[in-house]
Fold each of these.
Amino acid sequence: MRWLARLLAFLRQASGTDGEREKPGTAGVPARRADAESLKRAFQNIHDAECVEIENDRLGKATLLYIRSLIDIRQLQEFVIAPLQNASGADLRDTIHAAHLTEMDSPEQAETAAFKGAVIVLAGGRLWSISLASSLSRAVEPSKQEAVIHGPQDSFTEQVENNLTLIRRRLAASSLKSERFLVGGLSHTTVILLYVESLTNPELVRIAREKTAAVRSDAIFDSSHLSQFMEDHIHSVFPQFQQTDRPDAAAAALASGKVVWLVENTPFALIAPITFFDLFQSPEDYIHRWPVASFLRGVRFFAFLFAMFLIPFYVAITMHHYQMVPLDLLFVVLESRSEIPFNPFWEALFMMLVLEILKEASLRMPSKSGQTLGIVGGIVIGQAGVEANIASNLLIIHVAVTAIASFLIPNYLMTNSSKLIQFGLLLLAAWLGLWGITLGLILVLIHLNGLTSLKQPYFAPLSPFYGTDWKDTVVRLPLKWMSRRPAYLMPADPYRFKAGGSRPERKD
Amino acid sequence: MRRGMRAEERGAAGGLWPASLGWLFVNRLQVAFYILFLPHVLLYPYMIWAIVIVGVLSHFNLRLLAGWMRTEEARLGYEGFVRLLGERAARALAVPGAAAVLLDSAIVTLDYLEVTHHVLFPSAGKLTLLPLLWLAALYLAGQGMLLAGRFVVIAFVGSVWIAALFVQFLFPPVAEYRFLLPVFAGEPRGDLALILPTVWAALSGPQYLAFVARRFAPAGGMFRWLALGNALSVLEYTLFFLAVTLSFGTEYLRKIDYPVVQLIRYIQLPFFERLETILLPAHMILYVFLDAFFILFLRDALRVAAGAARKPDRPRWLMAAAVLWVAFVYVIGRFFWTTEPQHRLWIRVHTWLSGTLYALLPSFLALAAVRRRRRRDGP
Amino acid sequence: MRALAAFATALILAGCAWIDPATHVVEEISPTILMYLHQSEDAELESTIVVPAVKNENKQVLTARGKMLKETRLKLNFRHSRELKSGQLRMLFLSEASARGGIFPCLNTLLLDQEISDRMYLAVVRGDFTGFLREQIRLQKNYDRILYKRFRHYEHQLSSRNLHFFLRDYYSPYADPRLPLFEVRDGQMIYVGTALFLDDRMVGAIPGEADPFFQMIANGRGYFPNIPLPEQDVVLGKVTTDRKIKYDAKKEGIVITVHLEGQVDEYTGDRNLGDPQEADRFIRGLKEDLEERILEMVRSLQELSVDPLGAGLSTVTLFRERFPGGEWRKRWPELTVTVRVDLGLNNLGMSKPEE
């Protein structure tokens, strides 16, 4: 019968418990002696689960249960075992002066804590946990995805507590609140919800809290997994959460009135609510001079539109609207296209697929062969393709420019999403020419109109229209002029500073 | 928390449209169909005054409309109409109302499809593009009145830049300023009985806002936004009229079917020519918005007529309205819009329908509201 | 709701896979940019086009005859491997015979065709243009493009009209159309003046010698890099012209005021332009000569009773049209014309070398 009990216990574990909100230490019901056994049973077949018993005439017997791979052995020795052996009082709290000594309410809680890098102490019939997590971590390095030339060079790591440090150092205020969730029945991933209480709309915080608590999954390994459970629209190609590994970006988002999630074991933090225009913002914008920053933002938008529309435009014109071609180009196009056996549509489709294959292959290829692939792909395939009359020169140029332009979008997810939109537009262009492209564009706009991020409109400040927000979307006006926080977030405190730029008054 | 937020933000926060969206609605509702058609009717240079005079009349009419939209009955939506007219009357009037909406949007859409067919896809059938337009409109309508209304900003941004391209026709060498003479006519030629109602119909459209008054956030001056939209429409019509008259002259203008489209084909930018392939599709965003708006109106009219106005909304009403709409448009387009005289007839129908509604509806509603208030506050 | 939309989409996409039965794919068509129309003696229309070449093909000049324009078009289509399209038609040449016979039916056809742009250049050609084209295409493959570039180049200096302006003048009661006139001579196409039209029939031409004077007053404002006046031994350079036409009700006549500003580029005469008095006399002489020549030219227009200057527009006031309907055409030959030239030469520069 014991196997049945074990099986049931295992099933209960693996079926995915809800993310529980943890409240800091409450006095609970003392654990029964039999619970030591239940804990020991949970640790069966875990070879690095260790159980140490320490006897002390003052304290009595203290049983230590821990997973060796999760804790710092040296600290265990120094701060737990040694004091226990020399215990002078009957109360554990007098003996161990660890900062994270907490009493556990139940064996399940103790089990969870043990797998989070705590040492469980069973003493005097009560369960305690001491957090002695191993400090195995990556050093803080510059971000590879969002590198800037000027500006802070630190980025998040996989340790959520380190990440929190980086943010707290930037927003040194008591109004920066953090709530901890455990998400994932199997992974028990720590998710920390951050917001600045004095200025964030409480409605947003409530929605964020509810969504995080409602995540039903067994294992969350990355923030994007988490975001997919919290999204309003799972079928859309547009990302509804922003992911960043830059602490300054996260802090700026918090200061605007957004909500940030820090997820354990991934350096990417989630930010919401975002708008479509946020996908084109880069932290560097606030470092450049404002006309330069505005220009660069304009270039990014232009590059996005260019990347999406160039090839469909080419296909539409060569297939339906020959009268639009400027005269000099007309004969060039006629000559170059006359030898190619395919339609412009098939030609474009083929070349775009080849480009995608190249891009994917370069991601998977070992770095040593990466350069070869670049040469093979770029020069040989392109050039040979033209000479073998599979593609025309003009199209190769379009494809190459499109590929480069698509990387101007700061948001990595959006880069790949725009590819999909481009394929859709290509189909419509081949079918109906420019009318089809416009129809596709309108469908995308309607889609964006109805999209929400954390239940806030995604296409703000265009729809709904907020005049003041336009200071920081397509252009970046001087920071001195941006005295209001983004209106679509409906912040509790709409003003960053009073005009005049003095220190904001503290709201107590 | 709501302190320090502007009115428009408060509106959006509460699930309403900010009052400032009013001018976009008015402008786009007015300009939609007539921008392609009006210069064909206004042949003589002195008709520019017709635009101005009718614009002023429309301005006053909008005052009545704004007055109605401010009343409590307007703010209550269906309940308000019930209070005003009685439930029976409200339900009975929903049927001709639905018919009017259907006819209005059908004619407008079919005319656009006609122009597109004529200019862009002469070898494809006229109604081939209808299902696609319908799908896009249905997609937008499916998002609900709140979101579909917000789309007016995008529709505006997506279609107003076309007017900017016409400014080049106000300057030589294409423009011949003397074509504007005589601008004050002694004995006006031209059929004034046709022209003035057409210009009035060109400025019609805002009357539909009377039924969505509850969607606007309560803000003090609704009228100024309506008036702004009206002024912008008058400006746009004047710009197009000037561009067309200066470029063609009265006699040549008489012979051309779609002078605005003809001018679009004449635009030359450094790398681009034959812009009609871009500008005519660009107009589509306006028609998608309008059709979605009208399908939603139709849905509400159907619900009212069937007595289900108080019950919660179900998707079947929207589907019914959408199917009814596309069937109606298809039937008219296929069987009753095949020859040139029929085309002209439908345009005349639209002129009279839209013009009459615009003339009567605001005054009727405003009067009814005033009478009701007097009865209520009476002796 | 979404399911229905998806179903409808699938239905449509399956049903009309290719909406447009006509093909416009650029490699399957032959866009022509040049067309020549000639009305032969037996009232048959002959149209000639230049067909663009692709690899392994030669550029061809095709001709077909028929009674109507589109009929010839159809015949031309049957002679070629790809479909001929007129969307890129940029130049239309008319033979003098067909111009004199009336060209409106052809132009109307072209106007109604939605594919053809209003910016198509029109010109009248004297001589055997078809043979000339065949020869030139044989020598230079790109001759049609070269011709187009010539038109672009001419736009300000010579009569260069496109379909839009031609039809505008045709319909206007106060102006008459005009087109450039070329002649095929000695294997070259030479500009010989401006062809004048009454309605849609060519009734005459302004000869090459009088043409610069016409150009000076033809458009409101103009710029000419050079105006040669050989009788006065002078070539004026960088000339900007500004003409105003007014109707004088008392005298019942037209006053044409031309304001010319430029400089002397070349002078081969005897006067010493460095001397102020001589220069003054020179300028006055030049002015009188210009006035005389322009007046002579305008009188020749009146004789033909054509008004390519659009002088009739000056008779319309803010309040009324003085000569409504077709009255202007009757009045124009009878009006007295006065020409005034304001000549401003800001750099006379030349002086005779000291002897």
Amino acid sequence: MASLQRVQAQFMSFDEPLPLRSGAVLPAYSLAFETYGELNAARSNAVLVCHALNASHHVAGLDEQGATGWWDNLVGPGKPLDTDRFFVIGVNNLGSCFGSTGPRQVNPATGHAWGADFPVVTVEDWVDAQARLVQRLGIAELAAVLGGSLGGMQALAWTLRYPERLRHCIAVATAPNLSAQNIAFNEVARRAIVTDPDFHGGHYYAHGVVPARGLRVARMIGHITYLSDDAMAQKFGRALRAAELGYSTQAIEFQIESYLRHQGDKFSEYFDANTYLLITRALDYFDPAAEHGGSLSKAFAPARGKRFLLASFTTDWRFAPARSREIVKALVDQRIDVSYAEIDAPHGHDAFLLDDERYHRLMAAYFHQVDRDVRAP
Amino acid sequence: MSERRDLEVIAGLVPAGARVLDLGCGDGELLAWLRQHKGCSGYGVEIDDDKLRRCVERGVNVVQMDLEQGLALFDDHSFDVVLQLETLQHLRNTERMLRETARVGRIGIVSFPNFAHWPNRLRVASGRMPVTKALPYEWYDTPNIRVGTYADFEVLARKSGLEVTDSFGLHEGQVVRRWPNLRASVAVFRFERH
């Protein structure tokens, strides 16, 4: 199917301060975003797409650099989230390194880059910022909010914070909070970054360096958790790079090593270390049940009347199906409309970004419903 | 079509406005009908990808789940009616499933092929397994891992502490109340907890 041609990032600045969950206040900020498709006359066909750890507002189509959006297989004309029917918004989150206000940008209070002083932002803070953008676009009610993984957490948070401003929530490969194991992986990644001698307490911009070594290791660890054991075995197995073992402890011997190093190298060239720290923290902190004595069911009380689709992937051990089922249970307890699919896909957590036929047909079916809902009088 | 008539008869057993859990809901036809005509709400449970998608297409709430894992997702007494239509015969743990049905719902309604329907008896008497509209499979490729009779279910219901409040047979879309164990291809039971 065809992709959207040339899409362009837009920016929106906000002068009203944004109070953050930590108690800190972001005095002013701007958000990078892209939109695809046309907003209808009733302004009722808008779908917000929330991004995960390393993605951005560039969801679909080709940007000025010729880069394809991260969810281009799902979003576009004739695709499951059909831009011929919906007005789709991709927003870059605060603290990111892709255009929205973040640690690389100048802190007006000091005249220097924010660096490590950028305030800790949470999923809820992101959603608050997104809500202001949506409002500024003149959209009183979103047809749907969609996200996978960390993006799914944002989609869930929308239903708790702004239930009157959306109809449908579609949360894929997500969780109601991170497990200790998940936090542990994030912590290893963060330690890799902050112990890199080039980190300089997060103020590496001033030194003209980046903690690339730390970022590489962080990405390697992350990448392992996004793939299933089977997918890795199938793709790489124990294949060697050379014909025989080189009996070296330092050289790349196995193909999997080569792959991970390549992923790490690529990532360290475009991603910001402070952003990585901030985003993994936002993941760690998300826990809507915490304010309700640990009851996820109680946490979802504000979402009554909304409609949900949840999907998980059988081989995803980072955000396992059992975690999605916890959310489904909470919604069922609240008698909220929900459908849940457990998709038998071999790829692990990454499956949510891939073009699996069953998955995409399900998404198309759900968005068909959303479309019908939007058109209903 | 008799299957459609069967559904209508069973839909007639569901009170208006009921909260319904439909175990093995297929493509969601019954739930959609109950929602539209009787103002019911609730969820379907289905394991098959294609059927699940058809539920989603028609806007029926559906949860993909293997019923062999039980109904832990659903709290005690959280539904008015739990339906288990043409599902029981596919489950290994029939007895546990019935107890789960009674735990989750106030009323349980089950239907399944009645193996004691007279053509089946004749066929077995002739030395062969029956292949009929209600039991359309050869013995070697049937997905039905449990075959039981109308009379057998009465025994199991008693053993499981369920109070049968209505029961009848269905055949070719007609309700069979006289000698259902002999005359009906499908058995239907409505029960409540003791």
